[in-house]
Amino acid sequence: MSETDTLRDNRDRGGPAQPLVLAQNLTKHFPIRSGLLNRQTATVHAVDGVSFAVHKGETLGIVGESGCGKSTTARLLIGLIELDDGTIVFDGDALGSAISLRDMRKSVQMVFQDSYASLNPRLTIEETIAFGPKVQGLADPLGRARDLLGKVGLDPNRFAHRYPHELSGGQRQRVNIARALAMSPRLVILDEAVSALDKSVEAQVLNLLCDLKDEFGLTYVFISHDLNVVRFISDRVLVMYLGEVVEVGPVEAIYGKQAHPYTASLFSAMPSMDPDNRTMEPPLSGDPPNPVNPPSGCRFHTRCRFAEDVCSGAKPALATFGNHPDHLAACHMHDPASGHSLAGAEASA
Ligand code: SF4
Predict the structure, then answer these.
(1) Of 249, 263, 236, nearest to 64 (Cα)?
(2) What is the pLDDT of residues 236-263, one digit of tens each?
(3) How far apart are CA 231 and CA 271, in angstroms?
(4) What distance in angstroms lies between residue 317's CA and the mean position of ligand 1's atoms?
(5) Predicted model pTM
(6) Are 243 and 295 in contact (CB under 8 A)?
(7) Sheet containing 93-94: order of strands
(8) Which of 26, 243, 313, 332 is the most exposed place for a label (fewest CB within 10 A)?
(9) Span from the CA of 326 to the centroid of ligand 1 (angstroms)
(10) Rounded to an integer, what distance in angstroms lies between the CA atom of residue 286 and that of residue 283?
(11) Which atom of ligand 1 is nearest to the CA of 305?
(12) Residue range 105-123: average pLDDT?
């Protein structure tokens, strides 16, 4: 058994059925300050009561328009920004009581979109990857770095002593992935990690991520605005709108039939190579409302063509949609308790 396998087994205390991450009611508001006295004049509702689970070995895709809170959610998960409210349970251990942020961070790594800004220009590639293991006192950090360079498809004899500016964008992102793996993480958060790459390089890095996931038994949270890429790599998808979860479910269920009108509009703009694959759904119009003053009730009601009076008055809860018990959507028209029906609204639209 390899060192990685041993570490994984020792830490997988709750068994495969226990979610690796259970995020409950995550909330983050950013104050806006102005004036000479720097007084708080407004609040940005970046993430509001977001709850979800990340199961062991899965890839959870998070999608939504810019500013919907997906990157803030990722930063809350890894502790880069502090929670205002909510709890994070990591493999059964509540963050802050049963497990410290410092200990959890050893098991959670993040890869960012900007591959160049993520690397220290003064360190060689080998030193960059070895830095984390060295600080943590792990054995043979330079050997580990060279080994991981090989795993991400970069010949250690050619690349170990190069500097970040000597690499292409795709090679730098491979280095960032190797650096994340150097800490033997259990969860890797990929925040738009392939968005800045050319399509051919993007495909190579996506395949690499799939291979590494199998080899190291990793769990991914994959954040992207590219719905085709999310479909390729994800097992489940979580859709966010203006700081809230509006739909979540297995990738085949959501890509088969979107329950929430926002998801349907988002997916209608997805490019397709199939000329027969036409959507009747009108694309989203207008910009999302200002997160400083989000709409009441369902936050999507200002842009939703099915909105009724109930939508602005009460916040819809996540309710099961369709045949899959794990496919949930937050829309009054899918909540039997509301007495409304999206089918009826569609017929009259
Ligand atoms: Fe549209 Fe109302 Fe459903 Fe919100 S709750 S998505 S406004 S129909």
Answers:
(1) 263
(2) 999 999 999 999 999 999 999 999 999 9
(3) 13
(4) 11
(5) 0.89
(6) no
(7) 39-54, 21-34, 85-90, 93-94
(8) 313
(9) 20
(10) 10
(11) 1
(12) 93
Condensed to tens digits (0 to 9), the pLDDT of residues 58-90 reads 999 999 998 899 999 999 999 999 999 999 999
DSSP state of 99: B
Domain ranges of the chain: 1-107+185-271+281-294+314-330, 117-184
For atom 5 of ligand 1, the residue with the nearest CA is: 331
Tokens standing for residue 114: 């900007």
Whose Cα sits closest to atom 3 in ligand 1?
331
In tens, the pLDDT along 274-319 reads 666 666 666 677 778 999 999 999 999 999 999 999 999 999 999 9
Pocket of ligand 1 (CB under 6 A): 260-261, 298, 300-301, 304, 306-307, 311, 316, 331-333
Confidence of residue 5 (pLDDT cuts 50, 70, 90): very low
CATH number given to 1-107+185-271+281-294+314-330? 3.40.50.300
Instruction: Point out the ligand 1 atom lying closest to the alpha carbon of residue 310.
Output: 2
First to last CA, the chain: 60
- Which phi and psi angles does 220 have, rounded to 5°? -115, 145
Give the closest residue to 235 by CA, choosing from 219, 216, 250: 250
